[in-house]
Amino acid sequence: MNFLKSLVQKFTGKPVDWDELEESLIRADLGVPMTLRILKSLQKRAQRSTITATDIAEVAREEIGRILPIAPVPITPLPAKPKVLLIVGVNGTGKTTSTAKLAHFFKRNRHSVLLAAADTFRAAAIEQLGIWAERLGVEMIRGQYNADPAALCYEAYEAADRKKIEFLICDTAGRLHTKSNLMAELGKVLDDDAIIFNEGVTNAGAVLLQIPRSRPNTTMRSGGGGLGWSGGLALGAKLAAPDRMMVQISGDGGFYFGNPSSVFAVSQQYKLPIFSIVMDNTGWNAVKQSTLRVFPEGEAKTASEFESELAPKVAFSKVGEAFGAYGEEIGDPADVPAAIARCLKEVRGGRSALLHARVTKM
Ligand SMILES: Cc1ncc(C[n+]2csc(CCOP(=O)(O)OP(=O)(O)O)c2C)c(N)n1
Ligand SMILES: [Mg+2]
After folding, report:
1. pLDDT given at position 124
2. Which of 55, 165, 273, 337 fits 160 for a cystine, CB–CB 3.0-4.6 Å?
3. Atom in ligand 1 nearest the alpha carbon of residue 254
4. What is the CA radius of gyration of the chain?
5. Which of 144, 177, 210 is the last residue of a domain?
6. In the predicted model, what is the mean pLDDT of residues 318-329?
7. How far is the CA of 283 from the centre of ligand 1 (A)?
8. Is residue 101 in some structural domain?
9. Are residues 222 and 259 in the same domain?
10. Last residue of a domain, which of 114, 149, 177?
11. DSSP reduced 3-state for 142
12. Is residue 343 part of a domain?
């Protein structure tokens, strides 16, 4: 374990600084309860003798061992279809290496394995897994960078099923997914009375799943397939219920159909402040996905050209600003909570806010 090695290095040849140790353990992603257990056990030892770096590693190993199951459940294949192992975790925790280790383990036990390089985000991730696949002599399904990882996993599953492979291991990207993060943060701060106009298309699920609604009539979807309704509807609702927060959420494509300049002009003229969010995935993902469903191996896929990209350099928030609204653009999950707070403050203060969020690319 690398983190144990680095712990030993850090604490060798000096008296233990408990605060520093606590911080190191937390930083190693052990979590608060495990960190406290390790510290407690070490402090008990410290009453008897001086703690060294080796003690730290030993106790950490012991305490971690204690929470692992005594008899691990063996991973066995399913009777007639591939068993899927989806490897998830934050950056730098060894997902790709673990994928390779698992593949090696299964192969050694005479099982068939297929790998899916579903980390289509991090530079060189696909090649890194490719090297492992080659060394281990297992097949790997790869896509292009920025390709939809879910579509790739689906494709890999079909291949595994067709070839009667027992285990499919999908290596995924370790980054935070902005759209879920964004909606989860919004879900935390909206009150029960706020009304959500969910015009998301392929990202509609993130809105539905992450914003809890406990009261009736506080969330709306379109009754049909036509896009462009959410801005106008949010304005109308604000007219009917001036004291409630109206949150319009759409994709970049849907946003265009809603005549946003008219929406913000009306909002300004009639003092109807709403909170609008554009989940910008750089295009019409629905169009791309439906093309792939009809022609999974078609020309469009081969050329990676779906004619569904929208202008990549649009500053959507400026459309709102042109009509006196507050505008902001974000792309980093870390900026989400503060940006939402600023927007809500503006809306409560009487002017609309338009948050342009660059989410996971289609
Ligand atoms: C008025 C209107 N024009 C065209 C369509 C066809 N259409 C369905 S989904 C879609 C793309 C939507 O893009 P976006 O809002 O960015 O959502 P994403 O697919 O990227 O999740 C289009 C053009 C429609 N539903 N309504
Ligand atoms: Mg889109």
Report:
1. 84
2. 165
3. 15
4. 25
5. 177
6. 97
7. 9
8. yes
9. yes
10. 177
11. coil
12. yes
* Residue type (1 letter), 131: I
Ligand closest to Cα of 202 equals 1
pTM, to two decimals: 0.58
Residue of 180, 222, 227, 259 with the most ligand 1 atoms within 8 Å of its CB, for mutation: 227
Range of the domain at 11: 2-67
Which range among 25-29, 124-128, 167-171, 260-264 shows the weakest confidence by mean pLDDT? Answer: 25-29
| 290 and 163 fall within a common domain | no
CA of 226, closest atom in ligand 1? 26
**Please, are residues 155 and 140 in contact by the beta-carbon 8 Å criterion?**
no
Are residues 144 and 15 both part of a single domain?
no
Neighbours of 40 (CB within 10 A): 12
State the average pLDDT over residues 124-134: 92
Both 116 and 234 in a single domain?
A: no
Q: How remote is the CA of residue 60 from the centroid of ligand 1, in Å? A: 52
294 and 220 inside one domain: yes
Q: Are residues 307 and 247 in the same domain?
A: yes
Identify the pLDDT of residue 30: 82
More confident residue, 94 or 66: 66
> Do residues 96 and 139 both lie within one domain?
yes
Out of 28-32, 90-94, 143-147, 152-156, give the one with best mean pLDDT: 152-156
Average pLDDT along the chain: 91
pLDDT digits (tens, 9 = 90+) for 194-235: 999 999 999 998 898 889 999 999 999 987 889 999 999 999
Cβ neighbour number for residue 277 with a 10 Å cutoff:
27
Sheet arrangement for strand 195-199: 219-220, 195-199, 246-251, 275-280, 353-358, 326-330
Q: Which distant-in-sequence residues (6+ apart) come within 8 Å of 241 by Cβ? A: 195
Q: How many A from CA of 286 to the centre of ligand 2? A: 8
Helix (H, G, I), strand (E, B) or coil at 117: strand
Are residues 52 and 195 located together in one domain of the fold? no
Q: What percent of the chain has pLDDT over 90?
A: 68
**pLDDT, tens digit, for every residue of 241-270?**
999 999 999 999 999 999 999 999 999 999
Domains held by the chain: number:
3
What pLDDT, on a 0 to 100 scale, did the predictor assign at position 306? Answer: 93
Work out the burial of residue 137: count CB atoms within 10 Å of its CB; fewer than 13 is exposed, 13-18 middle, 19 or more buried.
exposed
The atom of ligand 1 lying closest to the CA of 279 is 16
Query: Is the CB of residue 64 less than 8 Å from the CB of residue 15?
Result: no
Ligand 1: lining residues by beta carbon, under 6 Å = 201-203, 225-228, 250-254, 257, 281, 283-287, 362
